[in-house]
Structures are given as structure tokens and as C-alpha cells.
Amino acid sequence: MAAKKVAVPDSVRQLGQQFEQFRSTRSGRGKLPAALWQAAVEQARQHGVDVVAQALRLDYNVLKRRAGSAERPKGKIPMPSFVELMGATSAVGDEYQHVHLENNILFPRAIELEESYG
User: Fold this and answer.
1) What are the distances in angstroms from CA 87 to CA 5, 8, 80?
2) Alpha-carbon gap, residue 11 to 15, rounded angstroms
3) Domains of the chain by residue range
4) What is the pLDDT along the chain (118 residues), one digit of tens a residue?
5) Distance CA 98, CA 1 (A)
6) Alpha helices of the chain — where are they, by DSSP H?
7) Exposed, middle or buried by CB within 10 Å (0-12, 13-18, 19+), for 43?
8) Which among 78, 50, 43, 55 is positioned nearest to 8, based on CA atoms?
């Protein structure tokens, strides 16, 4: 299966030229300057992580983490006002058994009706 070709926006191409210029002055692998990472993060938020990571030859997961980390609020996260807890049930019959027992406690006549319909 062939990979889809995605049009690379001009702003990402221009940033790619800056990346290539930086890479051409370095021998081997080294850390990218913070300014280049920041520019890549901004482009990823605008055009998508996949497009930018491929065009700039960056690690997708690293770019995704950096793009996501800047969006998180700093400080205390507010507590939710409502949380629903769902219990695990082993089978569909558990709900029936619960309703059945509750009816027998709340409505004693339910036992007589069930026995009569047998």
C-alpha cells in the first residue's frame, strides 16, 4: 500500500529550509535549537503533527508530545463537579438479578406473581 502524498504548506517548506540549513552546518546528530523546535510546534498545531513531522524529518512522537505539552494548563487542575462510577458486571443477567431481588424486597406480591406465571 502506497503512502498518501499530502500537500506541504509553504510555511512548513520555508521552515524546512531553515532546518536543512541548520543540519548542513552540523556533522552527525545533535540537538535542535529551541527556536526551531518552537517553530515546528507552532506549525504542527496549525497544519497537523503528521504533515510537519514528515516534512521536517522529525520524530512524530516527540513533536506530538511537545505540541501537546504546551497546551496543558499549568498549576492545579480543577476538580470535576460530577463523576459517574460504573461497576463492572460479569454478565447481562446480573442486572436482571438485581432488579428481581429489589422487586421482591419492595413488592412482596412480585414473588406470588412470578410463581403464578411460573
Assistant:
1) 46, 48, 19
2) 6
3) 10-69, 87-118
4) 455 667 888 999 999 999 999 988 887 777 889 999 999 999 999 999 999 999 999 999 999 999 886 554 556 667 677 666 666 555 555 655 655 666 556 667 767 777 777 6
5) 52
6) 10-24, 34-47, 49-56, 60-69, 93-106, 109-117
7) buried
8) 55
Task: Report the C-alpha dihedral over residues 102, 108, 110, 113, rounded to 10 degrees.
Answer: 160
The pair phi, psi for residue 114, each rounded to 5°, is -65, -40
Q: How many CB atoms lie within 10 A of CB 32?
A: 16
Q: How far apart are CA 110 and CA 102, in angstroms?
A: 10
Residue type (1 letter), 9: P
pTM listed for this prediction: 0.54
Rounded to whole angstroms, how far apart are CA atoms 42 and 56?
13
Cell of 103: 422487586
Tell me how far CA of residue 116 lies from CA of 32, 36, 38, in angstroms.
80, 79, 75
